[in-house]
């Protein structure tokens, strides 16, 4: 309910302004990603920077859409963290962009799966074995699809 209130541009008591902006920015970024999917655009570095810019809008404008010094054309966010802030949010939104382009619904990494998610990411990065990560994403996609079917 609090998220709904924030998305309707009313701040929620007990939440910081940063938390409010993070939710609003996330909504705007999702809308941008939906536009990319609808127009069937190929993902570009400019779009990745734009996604990051939207995530940090009003929070860290100085760093929004800019790589850390020394990073050029990053390929894997998890291992290199090219931005000062917002790497995780950007990478999860890029994951959802790719899922949506393939016709799947976006996923949410639930709190109870967060540790498993981070462990799978770490394993994929350090061992180049992404099986656990792929299985986690598949489980989340199946969970969302089951939810959709339940409400149809």
The CATH topology label of the largest domain is: Fic-like fold
Uncertain segments are none
CATH superfamily of the largest domain: Fido-like domain
Indicate the mean pLDDT: 84
Distance between the termini: 23 Å
Rg from C-alpha positions?
16 Å
Q: Would you count the extended β strands for me?
A: 0
The helix fraction, in percent, is 55-70%
Q: What general outline do the C-alpha atoms trace?
A: globular
Structural class: mainly alpha
Total tally of structural domains: 2
CATH class of the largest domain: Mainly Alpha
User: N-to-C SSE series?
Assistant: HHHHHHH
Q: Approximately what portion of the residues adopt beta-strand conformation?
A: under 5%
Largest sheet entry: none
The helix count comes to 7
Assigned CATH architecture of the largest domain: Orthogonal Bundle
Please provide a written account of the structure.
This protein folds into 2 domains: 2-106, Fic-like fold, CATH 1.10.3290; 108-152. By secondary structure, the protein is mainly alpha-helical. Helix 2 (17-38) packs antiparallel against helix 3 and helix 6 packs antiparallel against helix 7. It has helices at residues 2-7, 17-38, 45-56, 77-80, 87-101, 114-127, 131-151. It starts with a helix and ends with a helix.
């Amino acid at each position: 309910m609090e998220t709904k209130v924030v998305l309707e541009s009313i701040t929620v008591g007990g939440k910081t302004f940063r938390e409010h902006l993070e939710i609003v920015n996330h909504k705007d970024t999702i809308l941008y990603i939906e536009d990319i999917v609808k127009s069937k655009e190929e993902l570009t570095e400019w779009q990745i920077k734009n996604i990051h810019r939207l995530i940090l809008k009003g929070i860290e404008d100085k760093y929004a859409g800019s790589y850390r010094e020394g990073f050029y054309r990053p390929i894997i966010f998890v291992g290199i963290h090219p931005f000062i802030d917002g790497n995780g949010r950007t990478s999860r939104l890029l994951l959802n962009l790719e899922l949506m382009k393939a016709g799947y619904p976006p996923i949410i990494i639930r709190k109870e799966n967060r540790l498993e998610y981070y462990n799978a990411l770490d394993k994929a990065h350090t061992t180049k074995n992404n099986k656990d990560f792929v299985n986690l994403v598949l489980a989340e996609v199946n969970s969302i699809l089951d939810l959709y079917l339940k409400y149809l």
